[in-house]
Specification:
The complex is a heterotrimer. Chain A is α/β, with parallel strands linked by helices. Chain A contains 3 helices and 7 strands. Chain A has a 7-stranded mixed sheet with strand order 1-7-6-2-5-4-3. Chain A is globular and about 35 Å long. In chain B, strands 3-2-1-4-5 form a 5-stranded mixed sheet, sandwiched between helices. Chain B starts with a helix and ends in a 23-residue tail after the last helix. By secondary structure, chain B is α/β, with parallel strands linked by helices. In chain B, helix 6 runs parallel beside helix 9 and helix 7 packs across helix 10. A 5-stranded mixed sheet of chain C has the order 3-2-1-4-5, sandwiched between helices. Chain C has a 4-stranded mixed sheet with strand order 8-7-6-9. Helix content of chain C is 31%, strand content 28%. The chains are: A alpha/beta, B alpha/beta, C alpha/beta. Chains A and C meet through helix 3 of A and loops of C.
């Protein structure tokens, strides 16, 4: 398990880009964090670096969006499991895990039954009080690999 | 227009299955002949949002009866058609695939050209069916459960540009989430509207996303509702944690004001910046009384001609897809062929797939 | 003459005739491209068969069992093609086409047909054999099962990767000829939409 402090949204996007550079088809990233923690910002940075067609926006309403590659890489499937309460519901979305890079927001407890290996990324923000419109508070990011695939992952 | 002239306008059937409405529309040129919609919205209500698998199953059940009803309403036969049009994206993949599969088979069986069109541009295309002269360029603000987009339409079939869109949640989605937080049912738009009627819109100053000077460089026409949604959630949680009662009407009114304000402020700014004196509203949000009122007020003040098509053409429907298809046919565009697929993230610049 | 469509596994389309058998058949084995390929496969079959839409007497379609997303594409296509052609749709259990193909090519006796249901599960149907007309006699299923109970069965097993629209169409012709009843209008998803009521809004404050 690795812990990082990410001071700004820009750097959150850069973390996404850094991880994107190490991804291939079949990889799954579980993204956890409260509303507004920076999950979409991370995924946007990841999507841009993967070279997929954007823009990456919240898939909450549609649950899953497929962003095709603009080159010859794998597509990014961006899932929001906020409204899901059982792994089978994730499976109902008929995602092509093998051929895609899949990012699942609100993934806690959803992946065990669906895939064998994934990278858990949890973004925490300072709690309590209302974040001011100007102020940007740093985020604490925890990265935890599940499975052999992720042992070599570089985070800085 | 004379009867003879009308007869030469393309007769097009449009199929729309991108979300939870199964829509079939038939138009002759810019004349609406039928607009039939079967909705599975009630089935999703208890889950607090659209369930893609339920939507897709409902499309399969509803599609043939909806087609048949539309043909009866329009009093035309399939053989009369000049073309078939279908939404190929953006939207829910599994739902889109039902319409795409059906439209392809229908076009082959009839030996008619098939046009795969963009759902969002379809919303803009609905405007040609209002019977009034439609002028371009126009700015279009499309807001629904799944979309919040500000478009510059220079030419409906040639040149549509995305000025900005939500960088996180769609506005309609924020309504759904805040409604849920306040214990109101899905879909959230009408519920918030109702609750807000007796509330004070100035009671709580919720944030207007991406409206600060620093945002105006990179995100001048983009929207963000995630921060607003979080601010509302925190405000409500703090009251509840303190054992206080939550003033639902005031929260609803203040939230709705924040959404309406930022939507209309950015749309009007786009019209001004670009020197385009026309604004079109589309999507389910036109049902929102405050959004409409604020748009009317600010457009009048800024000398912008505001267009809001009838509600039945603003929510997802097949007529708008047929209308855009007819515009493509009239412009002499080649059909899309049979090789396209459902595209959940089809960009607005792809008017035709 | 029938247009036959099955998308319970990959995408398969054929034009068949009671006397001439399979006249044209085109398939795509990829199980995620149904919506993309369905139109071209239909068009190609009609062209290869040299048959006009008016020359068809109906549309046969496989109702599954099969994974939802793809299965629906074939059924939607069959229904709207039939509407456009003003011809009836006849519905067939997709596994029956696999069993029919097995018996037609010399197989006999009890048979268990399985296809992939994803989620580490299988769709299955059990057959006693072929009847006097060569039609498969399904005695159980179609059902959904984990692989273990199926592996322990002492019965000849046919694990199919694809369903041939040609076999499905010729079976439909034979069923029609012998006055058999077709499958119902409900797609054989064999799974409910997996959705449960969520527990309410998630907290944003710590």
């Amino acid at each position: 398990m690795t812990e990082l402090t990410i001071p700004t949204p820009e750097e959150m996007g850069e973390l996404g880009a850094l991880i994107a550079g190490q991804l291939r088809a079949g990889d799954v990233i579980a993204l956890n964090g409260e509303l507004g923690a920076g999950k979409t910002t991370f995924t946007r940075g990841l999507g841009e670096a993967l070279g997929v067609r954007g823009p990456v926006t919240s898939p909450t309403f549609v649950l899953a969006r497929t962003h095709p590659s603009l080159g010859d890489g794998p597509p990014l499937v961006h899932v929001d499991a906020y409204r899901l309460s059982h792994p089978a519901e994730l499976d109902d979305l008929d995602i092509d895990f093998a051929a895609s890079v899949v990012v699942v927001e609100w993934a806690a407890g959803m992946l065990d039954a669906v895939v064998d290996e994934w990278l858990d990324i949890t973004i925490r923000r300072p709690v309590g009080g209302v974040e001011s419109e100007e102020g940007v508070e740093p985020r604490l990011v925890t990265v935890e690999p599940h499975g052999e695939r992720w042992h070599e992952i570089r985070l800085v | 227009m004379t009867r003879e002239h009308r007869a030469h306008e393309p007769l097009v059937l449009g199929i729309e299955t991108s979300c939870d409405e199964t829509g079939v529309g038939i138009v002759r040129g810019t004349t609406l002949l039928a607009n039939v919609i079967a909705s599975s919205m009630d089935e999703h209500a208890r889950y607090g949002g659209v369930v893609p698998e339920i939507a897709a199953r409902a499309h399969l059940e509803a599609l043939t009866p909806t087609l048949t009803t539309a043909l009866e309403q329009a009093d035309v036969t399939l053989a009369d058609l000049d073309a078939v049009a279908v939404t190929s994206g953006p939207g829910l993949s599994g739902a889109l695939m039902v319409g795409v599969g059906a439209a392809k088979a229908l076009a082959v069986s009839l030996d008619k050209p098939l046009y795969a069109v963009n759902h969002l541009v379809g919303h803009v295309g609905a405007d040609v069916l209002t019977g009034e002269d439609v002028e371009h360029p126009t700015v279009a603000l499309l807001v629904s459960g799944g979309h919040t987009s500000l478009l510059l339409v220079r030419d409906l079939v040639n040149d549509v540009e995305m000025l900005g869109e939500t960088i996180d949640d769609a506005a309609g989605e924020a309504f759904d989430k805040v409604a849920r937080l306040l214990g109101l049912p899905y879909p959230g738009g009408p519920e918030i509207d109702r609750a807000a009627a007796s509330g004070d819109p100035t009671a709580i100053r919720f944030p207007r996303g991406l409206s600060l000077p620093k945002d105006m460089e990179k995100h001048r026409y983009d929207f963000s509702f995630s921060g607003l949604k979080t601010a509302v959630a925190r405000w409500v949680e703090q009251r509840r944690d303190a054992g206080e009662e939550v003033p639902v009407a005031d929260v609803a009114a203040s939230f709705r004001e924040a959404v309406a304000d930022v939507l209309i402020t950015k749309a009007v700014a786009a019209c001004r910046d670009l020197g385009v004196p026309r604004l079109l509203l589309g999507g389910g949000v036109v049902a929102n009384a405050r959004v409409r009122a604020l748009a009317e007020e600010r457009c009048a003040a800024a000398g912008i001609a505001l267009r809001i098509p009838p509600f039945s053409l603003c929510t997802d429907n097949g007529a708008m897809i047929a209308a855009l298809g007819a515009q493509l046919v009239a412009a002499g565009r080649p059909p899309s062929g049979l090789g396209f697929g459902a595209d959940s993230t089809l960009p607005v610049t792809s008017i035709q797939a | 003459m029938l247009l036959s469509i099955d998308t319970s596994a990959g995408t398969s389309v054929a034009v068949v005739d009671r006397d001439r058998g399979i006249i044209a058949e085109h398939s795509e084995a990829d199980t995620r491209r149904h919506a993309e390929v369905i139109g071209e496969l239909i068009a190609r079959c009609l062209t290869d068969a040299g048959v006009a839409v008016t020359g068809l007497s109906g549309v046969a379609v496989g109702m599954g069992p099969g994974p939802f997303t793809g299965l629906r594409v074939g059924i939607a296509a069959a229904q709207s093609f039939a509407l456009g052609a003003a011809r009836p749709v006849v519905r067939v259990v997709s596994h029956d086409a696999i069993a029919y193909g097995h018996y037609a090519s010399g197989g006999s006796g009890p048979l268990l047909v399985t296809t992939d249901a994803r989620r580490r599960e299988l769709y299955w149907s059990e057959y006693a054999g072929a009847d006097e007309q060569g039609l498969p006699v399904r005695v159980e299923g179609p059902g959904l099962s984990s692989p273990d109970p199926i592996a322990s069965r002492d019965i000849r097993r046919l694990d199919a990767q694809e369903v041939s629209a040609g076999a499905l169409g010729t079976l439909a012709e034979a069923m029609h000829l012998h006055g058999r009843s077709f499958a119902g209008e409900e797609p054989l998803y064999l799974r409910s939409p997996d959705v449960t009521l969520a527990a309410g809004p998630k907290r944003v404050s710590g």
